[in-house]
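User: Please check token order:
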Amino acid sequence: MEIRGVIAKRLLESKQTTPHLYLSKDVILDPLLAFRNELKDQHGVKVSVNDIVIKAVALALRNVPEANAYWDNSKEEAQKCDSVDISIAVATEKGLMTPIIRNADQKTISAISSEVKQLAEKARAGKLAPNEFQGGTFSISNLGMYPVDHFCAIINPPQAGILAVGRGNKVVVPVMDNDGTEKAAVVTKMMLTLSADHRIFDGQVGGKFFTELALNFSDIRRLLL
């Protein structure tokens, strides 16, 4: 069976057998964009928004280990994963591939960046080894390079979660000035939508995961600790 056929079968199976829970949150992207520019201007390090998102998600999963888990059908219970291994959705001519950044929580953003580039090239060339795309603990699907604001992705079993990342949009929001008066300001917002296995993620686990993730976007220095 060709890759597209396998993907189609697995997606249908996932949708039919995994109880999908959907949670959304928009985050303000400006601290991340400023940090990215600083890396480029001061250190000559070029990374993508997606590279920083991977690190932010990996650290959130490390800090909320019950979200970095899978459902064990034989035991009928949740099992926590020993490492944080992030699968990245990459479109190829043969279909969607998901190369894995292993131990992403322990890697620097520049290391993640170069690994993503290498794995994406291998995926497009059809040269990924099985261990490079099998066995991740959580997935990220980013359509921010397209005019897509918000979408819900389908879980990649046996994983319990996939984060769908939309594009950044400039919006006007009220902010409080130093003297306590409210004024209008333009910020860049990006919508994140988590599709989660409801057997692993109840509302509380999802809430804790998003709380950690939002902190990583608002206080970007957390990613360097």
